[in-house]
Design a protein that fits this description.
The strands form 2 sheets. An 8-stranded mixed beta sheet has the order 6-7-8-3-9-10-12-11, sandwiched between helices. Helix content is 34%, strand content 24%. It has helices at 47-55, 81-87, 99-102, 109-121, 125-138, 144-148, 157-170, 187-204, 215-221, 239-244, 249-256, 294-298, and strands spanning 5-16, 19-31, 36-40, 62-71, 74-75, 92-95, 175-179, 207-212, 224-229, 232-238, 303-307, 310-313. The chain has a domain at 227-326. The chain is globular and about 65 Å long. The protein is an alpha/beta fold and 326 residues long.
Length: 326
């Protein structure tokens, strides 16, 4: 099967005054053309760092120690800055979590969209302006002329996020990475933005890597889910398999924490995330897991296939489906 994106054994550290933070350890996954994949997990598990590594946004004190990030077979980690800038916007686009911080407050929306269109597609000023206007309409900003002349601080949160999506769309990229695109928005606007992302993906036949801590959002918008914990991938598989038969105790716990009709109390995950300056040598979830044995804390579990496209990294995986999460 051809893969649009392949991340292979990615290891990334941050060198801090406290010591070396082992932020990513052996992260591997792939995406097919046109596929939507949800990267989920608690805050600090490595979701956004993974996305930023793909985009080439890692700066000191962060450093990629090893691994490969292949886009159509090209290793992005081996490209010079100029070549990587040529890929951003044209082949991979990034939708930031906080759009008002990502947009330049000193330039109008129109100037930024036109620059993105010019860099990604090599258009002249007139064509770039026409494409920018068209794209703003495509993302649901009807008064495109007014939005083109506005600055980011003049926009509402929902409008700013639609502009960020327009920035991602205007270059015609085949892979969109959305980093918590709805976390700063109210519930009604969240739903609108997610519907917009689904429509844009269908229209452009783009792949989508959706970074989120919300399993419900991932289930509604993705084909597959990848569950991360403390810098590692612990489980991955089709949405139906993850929800009906979670195999990793951490995934099971996440699903039990979801609200559901008739559920009076949400189940919290006991314990705390390990310190990644000195993580345990074995399973990083072992100190919070009720299935753990001494072996779990000593030896890292390998990833094993347990079904069609369903893999888990656990010495004692959960076998029985969890009816409350189905």
């Amino acid at each position: 099967m051809n893969h649009l994106l392949e991340v292979q054994d990615l290891r990334l550290n941050f060198y801090t005054y406290r010591g070396v933070v082992q932020a990513l350890e052996g992260v591997s996954f792939h995406m097919a053309p046109g596929e939507a994949v949800g990267l989920v997990g608690e805050t600090g598990c490595g979701k956004s760092v993974t996305a930023r590594a793909i985009m080439g946004f890692i700066e000191p004190p962060g450093r990629i120690e090893q691994g490969r990030i292949l886009l159509d077979g090209r290793d992005l980690l081996q490209l010079k800055d100029k070549a990587l800038r040529g890929i951003r916007g044209r082949e991979i686009s990034f939708i930031f979590q906080e759009p008002k911080k990502a947009l330049d407050p000193t330039c109008t929306v129109g100037a930024q969209l036109m620059e993105a269109a010019t860099v990604a597609r090599g258009l002249g000023k007139r064509d770039a302006e026409a494409l920018a206007m068209q794209t703003l309409g495509q993302v649901g900003l009807g008064d495109a002329g007014r939005v083109m002349g506005s600055y980011s601080f003049e926009l509402s949160g929902g409008m700013a996020q639609r502009v960020m999506i327009a920035m991602a769309v205007v270059g015609g990229s085949r892979l969109m990475i959305a980093d918590e695109p709805t976390s700063a928005l109210d519930v009604s606007i969240q739903a609108q933005i997610l519907r917009l992302l689904r429509r844009i993906r269908r229209e452009q036949t783009s792949s989508l890597l959706l970074i989120t801590h919300d399993l419900g959002v991932a289930a509604e918008n993705c084909d597959r889910i990848i569950v991360m914990y403390a810098g590692r991938i612990v489980e991955s598989g089709p949405v139906r398999a993850i929800f009906r038969s979670p195999a990793h105790p951490y995934t099971e716990r996440l699903l039990r924490a979801l609200p559901a009709p008739g559920k009076r109390r949400l189940e919290a995950i006991p314990g705390t995330v390990p310190d990644l300056v000195a993580p345990p040598p074995g399973c990083r979830f072992s100190n919070r897991c009720d299935r753990a044995t001494p072996h779990c804390s000593r030896e890292r579990p390998p990833s094993s296939e347990i079904g069609d496209g369903h893999a888990v990294a656990c010495h004692h995986p959960v076998i029985a489906p969890v009816s409350a999460a189905a």
